[in-house]
Design brief:
293 residues, alpha+beta, Ribosomal Protein S5, domain 2, Alpha-Beta Plaits, 7-stranded mixed β-sheet, 26% strand, binds adenosine-5'-diphosphate, binds the ligand N[C@@H](CCOP(=O)(O)O)C(=O)O
């Protein structure tokens, strides 16, 4: 038996659509696997009632197939589904790390990234790796067709999750098909600024680089209260604010000393828009961790 804690993640970080990702120190899923002749999946925890246990429909089932590793699997969800916090990815990442260990497949963490991403194709139609990469490797990750690079970064974060669901599949439908040269230049500049900020653990640069003129404005329209939440977070000291993944969670980078105020303002702003929400005071954290074997 192997048990793995796989963290929530925030993909895109504004300027890095389908490329950037960051592991969050909390929340997390806990995935336990045991050898079995046939695969079964049991799901408990946050939002478990919305998650299919059929291996064909659960992200974990695709990982079992890819690793040829049938197992009895228990997923204890700490990451709410349809959150923008890589819920579907956390389970897939945890299963990939756990099954690799259980069956002694000997794959490196980098090699497990495309395998876990197969699970994302099951739910969103696209095997995007920007959530599974940080959930497996930890830190800030850059994923391209050539592979994944990661760096550790000490960046305090607030993630505010409103009590509404946005599926990644739906939120991908609003992504524009084209961008102008001006938008491209702005996006490259912001993405590069963010990457430099991560390498230096510089919260100001990371925040500055989170702006995105192409995808985020379209996604923000799907989140009631977004503009006020963003503005209030900045007023409380956030250095950057954007949609987390496909939403509805909103992520803010800030200094440690401002984190509590930023969280309080974001919660208040959602409440004023008539939406209950939950704020996680978190930071960029480690990847999947083996808890027990
Ligand atoms: N192990 C899993 N954990 C979470 N969601 C899952 C899992 N397997 C399948 N799903 C489905 O994936 C969808 C949520 O994924 P997605 O829309 O990408 O949201 P998120 O941003 O939270 O990952 C839901 O429809 C859920 O039922
Ligand atoms: N790059 C993807 C990321 C989706 O993240 P999720 O946490 O919302 O699943 C996208 O923006 O569609």
């Amino acid at each position: 038996m192997v048990t793995v804690r796989a963290p929530a993640t925030s993909a895109n970080l504004g300027s890095g659509f389908d490329v950037f990702g960051a592991a969050l120190s909390r929340p997390a899923d806990v995935v336990t696997v045991e050898r079995a002749a046939e695969t079964t999946i049991e799901v408990t925890g946050v939002g478990a009632q919305y998650i299919p246990e059929d291996p064909e429909k659960n992200t974990v089932g695709a990982v079992v197939e890819a690793l040829d590793a049938p197992a009895r699997i228990h997923i204890d969800k700490g990451v709410r589904p349809a959150s923008g916090l890589g819920s579907s990815a956390a389970s897939a990442a945890g299963a990939a790390v756990a099954l690799n260990r259980l069956y002694d497949r000997g794959l490196s963490r980098e090699e497990l990234v495309p395998i876990a991403a197969e699970g994302e194709a099951v739910v969103s139609g696209v095997a995007h790796s920007d959530n599974v990469a940080p959930s497996i490797l930890g830190g800030f990750t850059v994923t391209t067709a050539e592979g994944t690079r990661s760096v550790d970064a000490a960046i305090p974060l607030v993630v505010c999750l409103p009590d509404v669901a946005v599926s990644t599949r739906d939120a991908r439908r609003v992504v524009p098909e084209t961008a102008s040269m001006e938008e491209l230049v702005e996006t490259v500049g912001n993405a590069a600024t963010l990457a430099v900020g991560m390498c230096r653990s510089d919260t100001d640069l990371v925040g500055l680089g989170m702006d995105d003129p192409v995808v985020t404005p379209e996604r923000a329209r799907l989140i009631t209260g977004y503009d006020d939440v963003r503005e209030r977070a900045f007023d409380a000291g956030a250095t950057g604010v954007t949609v987390s993944g496909a939403g509805p969670a909103v992520i803010a980078a800030c200094r440690e000393r401002d984190r509590r105020d930023v969280a309080a303002e974001m919660l208040d702003a959602f409440a004023e828009a008539g939406i209950e929400s939950r704020a996680y005071q978190t930071r960029i954290g480690r990847g999947s961790t083996v808890l027990d074997e």
